[in-house]
């Protein structure tokens, strides 16, 4: 299994839809995970941190399944402004850096 | 305003020339990182520094060099030994190198080698 793997998409959804992305990771000892959002030609910005079973922030919910070693990101009531690439991030084996997935691209249309 | 600055935003160089990318942070963070991003690819770690005067190679360090003489500065030199230097370079920092900590990114430098 790769250190971190994401479905690249693109996911094309209409406004108001619910969409979910999955991310698998290989380091079973990982304790912290992140979802970052990256807009086209911009730097990544933190969307959510996941330290236990999950986290919720408004329309965004991140869930962690340690047994199956995957993290999911659920976006409810999609907005046009949610169109971006979502990066799954897990700790490096050495624990001193982060590994970024290649990202899942979301396109929300009206 | 606290944050990370990178300059320049766009940089063009001729093949065979070394070039240094600037990264400065005023967040008082101990750890700093350099990543490279190619189209359709994830971020790949070039070098990181956990503390002043110390740095470690990341996954793709060949052809790059760094220094960390000051806490707030972590410049990256792309040498002529780097085979495919054209890419989007991102600098990041975090409170420390513990993997629980969020990394904050600068706006990036797009390097094009002609």
Write a concise synopsis of the structure shown.
The complex is a heterodimer of chains A (110) and B (114). Chain A is built from no helices and eleven strands. Chain A is mainly β.
What fraction of the residues of chain A are assigned to beta strands by DSSP? Answer: over 45%
Number of strands of chain B: 11
- CA radius of gyration of chain B is 13 Å
**Molecular shape of chain B:** globular
Largest sheet of chain A: 6 strands, mixed
Number of strands of chain A: 11
Count, helices of chain B: 0
Poorly predicted runs of chain A are none
Number of helices of chain A: 0
SSE order of chain B, one letter for each helix or strand: EEEEEEEEEEE
Please describe what this structure looks like:
The complex is a heterodimer of chains A (about 110) and B (about 110). In chain A, about 0% of the residues lie in helices and about 55% in strands. Chain A is built from no helices and eleven strands. Chain A starts with a strand and ends with a strand. With about 110 residues, chain B is an all-beta fold. Chain B is about 0% helix and about 50% strand. In chain B, the strands form two sheets. In chain B, strands 2, 4, 5, 6, 9, 10 and 11 form a seven-stranded mixed β-sheet that branches. In chain B, strands 1-3-8-7 form a four-stranded antiparallel β-sheet, with no helix packed on it. Classes of the chains: A mainly beta (about 110), B mainly beta (about 110). Chains A and B meet through strand 5 and strand 10 of A and strand 5 and strand 10 of B.
